[in-house]
Amino acid sequence: MISKQAWFSAAFLGLVCVVGGAKAQDAAGWKADHDAGWAAYQGGHFTEAEKYLRAAENKARAFGAEDPRLATTLDHLAWVLCTEGKSEEGEKLAKDALSIREKTKTDLLDSLNTLACLYDLDGKPQEAKPVYLRYLALVEKTAGAEHPETVAAFDNLATVHHALGEKAEAEAAYKRALAIREKNGEAKAAELAPTLYNLGLLYVETGKLDQAEALLKRALEIRRKSLGATHPDVATSLEALGQLYAKQGKKEEAHATTKQALVIYELDLGAKHPHVVRCCSKLAQCCRAIGHADEADLLEERVKAAQTDK
Asked: Which structural domains are found in the chain, ordered by start?
């Protein structure tokens, strides 16, 4: 679902290269922290990512309130915070980054994409939709109709249609994105997995279960190969497959698959993360379906405790 450019423009790299002395050292220190943090995020190590990107933010603020390195850092830290469940702070940083880029008229696409995606992830499709539309218009104008970022924008806009119950529009947009990506030779790339996953979810909701299973399994295979077996996105795919198996009446498969998802979520996100709590609730239902009442009771107690702590 999310498309993000991780690197900087050639002009920005040139800016870093021409500074000297103490400023060069400051820039090198910022870059080291930033790159380590963004690599940790991409690897699914979110606590480590936040630590490095917080350090990079402190260094970047010394460059000035409108420095492009500050905008980049705020954007990337926003992704980390929202993934950790700190959506309010993450969205604020994404808005700050967008404000900097609107003033400087540099890398505007990155910040529009970030803010729209974070609204989307936080369950705010009404807020996400106009930002996605603005991003789509700009990226299609600058990059072309079949550029990977344009395709990602259509894909992300489809998720908003999906969330708003506009299922026909969502299916058409997912299929368009999928067809272009297949045509461009991305059938085995990580960028294809979100489209497969999202279309699979839509088919689960609309009762096209056999089609959904094929799509979700393919998304899971791609994520395991490209991200590693313990990445949170792998857990997301497993969780969706578990719900599909439950709808198909495959109770044992639903229990086993959902349990795998919970183990992976807990490994990277911690016991109280919203994804963990949600998965606990689903696993409890699976446990009751196969007669594991004691396991279900324990899981439901965890969910109640997490809700009480809010």
From this structure: 46-106 (no CATH), 123-228 (1.25.40.10), 232-310 (1.25.40.10)
- Angle formed by the axes of helices 193-205 and 209-227, to 10°? 150
CA pair distance 75, 89, nearest whole angstrom: 12
Query: Cα–Cα distances in Å, from 31 out to 43, 62, 178, 248, 303?
Result: 18, 13, 35, 50, 40
Q: What is the pLDDT of residues 114-152, one digit of tens each?
A: 999 999 888 899 999 999 999 999 999 999 988 888 888
C-alpha–C-alpha distance, residues 86 and 293, integer Å: 33
Closest-CA residue to 231 (of 199, 186, 197, 263):
263
pTM for this entry = 0.65
What is the C-alpha to C-alpha distance for residues 73 and 6, in angstroms, rounded to an integer?
Answer: 11
Where b means 16+ CB within 10 Å and e means fewer, 90-106 reads bbebbbbbbebbeeeeb
